[in-house]
């Protein structure tokens, strides 16, 4: 005979756990991936490599393993001949923070960083011989962070000083990813000049985008280091790195705080963001949903009744649910494809042609050959 | 002469078969010097595949062959061996035609020479210029050998370029002209023109040859001259008309006309080849494109009238010159076209004492042929050269060809001059004179 007070408490606890069970499953993703791309080469673009490596460092620190990170660096700054401190890439002057370390795994290096390879990584259309470390093996429950940095312009991003990717291509690549169920939610961050133009054309659902500058503005670099001789970081990524250094795997900081990183007073350019394609409210999206690989583990001693449907935490009206496109009706195709007919020339043509040939033959060689045939 | 010819045929077939079996066949089939957008086998396969899918093969910019090629290959396209054998057969056909051409040409020319000798038209000291049957005995075999064992023809055959079929039709035309059959000559010329427009210029030498053979004087005021021209043109244009209408009935539509003839004349595809068009038109402003297109195309047809006037006594040499001009100035030349007129060179071997640039020309031709793949690789694959390098070699190749042709022309005219005026020329006061080509 259980005490009714205890019964009420247990009942309350179970209700609470059911609600937190709702919160437990509200974000919808089960794994995290990151695609970090630096698109420029040459020593004076040191800061782009440092940008990418600092995001890599933060992402790895917050839990995403190397097997889930695709790191593309277009040039090797750590072992560049002009690096006075070889095997290091610093992100802060006075060499405070070495973002290179000894456990950096670069997946695409040097000339392998091309538009084609980038799009192939995103869409998954790689040749069968590509190793796993070079593939983005995401599924429909993956949250992917995509970070691009380099030199860009209005509607394009320059790769390797020889080719460019346009915002339309990028939007189409993301749509391909959506239709192939390759992501649950996507966070796109770009740190280039006129970066906002790159996310203007997105049209697939569940994408949130941030850029370091608006169209018509340049993203500026932070500070040069006189010993190394080049600018070490770009402003936006520098302040973002500072912001991320305060995040730990259990942080509850949300995206609205990330939007406030680097205001105009610090960045000179106006960072922009785009959330209209994103289903959830940005205030409910945790930073660690994208930057970390947080395994949600909650220890409980009670049994939770999961037969009831999980209610979302907000209790608001569900927005219109986006569904995936219909799969290709393979079974119909297999059984109903018409048999391919070979083309045959029309009979009139054959008749006409051979009559002419015979006529010419007999005209040239005489009718006397006729009796040899018949 | 049958035994050497058979041996030659066997050797040629063996070389082609050996190359075809090796892995070089695909490499060669993609070389731009050997195949052009008009003659590439890959495009034939593509066009026939489109046809099997129910789409007109002329839609899109893929297929530029005539409907008769569709008819000829639609059974064969699946069988690689048989198609290859058709091309080998085409090559053999050409060579056999050439063989018989020169076999029958020689008595004719000797007869002409004999008449001229008996009429005392040749001064005494030019007797050493006269050709004797003994030294000309092996010319047909040499012509066949020059064609079959020419690396250009071998490459063209292994690549299964339809240029081989074009050459076969042209050779058949030549053979029927030499044999004196007006109808067949008109029909084969019509077939050749139907494939690519340029052989229309060969009407003039064919007509001149027939007139010479039938002893019709080439005089604008004679009725017989115009009457023969009308007959020939009637046969030619009639068969052309019949062929075009027949091609309409193959696919039931006229869209092969812009795809084939419009393509040849308006040169929309600027893939590099060994010709002169692509580089110019790659950087042409649209405003001037039509003008330069006309200029370049007229260049092919322009030499017919002057050359026919100058060479009206020698239509065979005129055919050679005309074929050379077509091969150099056509819109999409390939090495197969070059090989066609190069095969004729042994016929004029008696001109060797008057040729001035042979060493230069042969060196340049060999060097350019070797440099084509090198500079292509440097341009396309290594990225350390650009199109200017490749075009320079193309230009040089064409200049060498033009030099070759003009050299033979000069030597031919000079020999004719010496035949009538004596070999060692003397001025009025007895001192030795030199001959200058003005």
TrEMBL record, chain A:
Gene Ontology annotations of biological process type: attachment of GPI anchor to protein; GPI anchor biosynthetic process; proteolysis
Pfam family, one: Peptidase_C13
Regions annotated as coiled coil: none
Origin superkingdom: Eukaryota
UniProt xrefs under InterPro entries: GPI_transamidase, Peptidase_C13
Residue spans crossing the bilayer: 348-366
Entry annotated with the keyword Transmembrane: yes
GO molecular function: GPI-anchor transamidase activity
Pathway: Glycolipid biosynthesis; glycosylphosphatidylinositol-anchor biosynthesis
Gene Ontology CC: GPI-anchor transamidase complex
Keywords: GPI-anchor biosynthesis, Membrane, Signal, Transmembrane, Transmembrane helix
Keyword Ligase: no
Active site per database record: 151, 193 (nucleophile)
Gene3D superfamilies assigned to the protein according to its UniProt record, in alphabetical order: 3.40.50.1460
PANTHER family: GPI-ANCHOR TRANSAMIDASE (PTHR48067)
Similarity comment text for this entry: Belongs to the peptidase C13 family.
Subunit composition and interactions: Heteropentamer. Part of the GPI-anchor transamidase complex, consisting of PIGK, PIGT, PIGS, PIGU and GAA1. Interacts with GPAA1. Interacts with PIGT; this interaction, via a disulfide link, stabilizes the expression of GAA1 and PIGK and links them to PIGS.
Protein name, UniProt field: GPI-anchor transamidase
Upper lineage: Eukaryota, Metazoa, Chordata, Craniata, Vertebrata
UniProtKB/TrEMBL annotation, chain B:
Gene Ontology annotations for the cellular component aspect, listed alphabetically: GPI-anchor transamidase complex
Source organism of this protein record: Astatotilapia calliptera (Eastern happy)
Phylogenetic lineage: Eukaryota, Metazoa, Chordata, Craniata, Vertebrata
Encoding gene (name): PIGU
Pathway membership, UniProt: Glycolipid biosynthesis; glycosylphosphatidylinositol-anchor biosynthesis
Record protein name field: Phosphatidylinositol glycan anchor biosynthesis, class U
Location of this chain's protein in the cell: Endoplasmic reticulum membrane
Chief localisation class: endoplasmic reticulum
Family recorded in the similarity comment: Belongs to the PIGU family.
UniProt keyword list: Endoplasmic reticulum, GPI-anchor biosynthesis, Membrane, Signal, Transmembrane, Transmembrane helix
Residues making up the signal peptide according to the UniProt record: 1-25
Membrane-protein topology: Multi-pass membrane protein
One of the Pfam families matching this protein, by short name: PIG-U
Domain of life of the source: Eukaryota
Residues spanning the membrane: 82-105, 223-254, 260-281, 288-305, 317-345, 357-382, 388-410
